[in-house]
Amino acid sequence: MRCADVLLAGLLALGCSTETQAPPPPRGVVLVLLDTLRADRLGCYGYARRPTTPVLDRFAEEGVLFETAISHAPWTIASVTSILSGLPDTRAFVDGGLQRSLVEDLTTGGVRTAAFTEGGYFTDAFGFGRGFETFHEEHYLHGGSIETTFPAALGWLAELADERFFLVVHTYEAHLPYLRTTFADGLPSGRIGERFTEEKHAEVDGGELVPTDAELFYLEALYDGGVRACDDWTGRFLSGLDELGLADETVVIVTSDHGEELGERRFPSFAGDHGHALLDYLVRVPLLVRDPRARIDGGRRVSAQVRSMDLLPTALELLGVAVPADCEGRSLVPLLRGESEPTERAARGGSPERGPDREFLRRAGFKLIRRTEEPEPDSPFAHLPELQLYDLEADPTEERNRALAAAASDAVIRRALLDELERDPAAGPLRPDDLDVPPELAERLRALGYGH
Fold first, then answer.
1. Whole-prediction pTM value?
2. Which of 2, 255, 279, 445 is the residue whose CA sits 20 to 30 A from 307?
């Protein structure tokens, strides 16, 4: 008998399994949603101008960083809809509200569920409380702030017994208005003023104030101050988990719903804004996951493309709840374990908040954006072509539109991506004008720069 056969026989005789035992499930999953946070403003994603994210940089060194995480849309309602439902927004947000949430499956599966949000668009007025046992919203600038939201979430955790839990913590901190001068002190603010308020945003949006390079630099410094506040309070929250004895049994996911325009000058009137384009600075988001059952010394980076709609299926699998068959999102657990996947996760989305309707498909290192409506001739979108095709490896900032390139290879790629879009047409865009916004909520949205 060979040595290997003798060893196998001995193991079987002892009742041992030759398979690697999966770690026990975590007790809880926390999703930290840092609204309006661009991936390229984190140190762990290569940002070096200012020390915006020392806490999250250390966090990434203990877990998994996804280099290419794509949001479904460049604004909150459509993006959060996809996150909570694991579906495109057009399939889950119907008649003015969220009609399907995977949180319902978690609650039905015996998991305690809660969300602590700073309102705005992330509000139960649009059905985002669906399925949550506790849904606490304290609207940003109307009683809510990062200083109150994160401690309130920790307070909920402190009251739990030994149940499994899923918690969402959402803050608007990096969003307009930009109030943190951490990195802006001493810089010339020009016409922006000490802080970038809703009033100044309205001047930029209306074309009355076209920021100079120096003013954009100041605007970025203000934004980075908000990013640093997000980082600081995420650190306090993580310390709070440790003090509660939960850090070693809680998977923490940190991400954003979309990015922000910061002077790219593709749309000059949208500096300090979002929702208007499907370019990567608005739809590529940070995604960091730390699983205490598998701490990774130095961290691991995953280059495979993933989507925000994959987050809730991941939470379900981690907490031992079956993912519904109709869910389009796919759990990230295999990638968290370091496994490779046989097929790429194509990222598809659209539903911009402003301008003509558009949709995008991001696959195999290319992105196709298709405009499905005519733009207003005198609007900031008048220049938008019907098709945009970008080679993201050769042109990561999406400067060269290859949709009309003469090369045969470009034509083949364009046709293949168009065919994929047309095989499964969207049901129709989710647009702000279709929402029934209560007057009190409209006032709060205006404070965030939304024209309701």
1. 0.89
2. 445
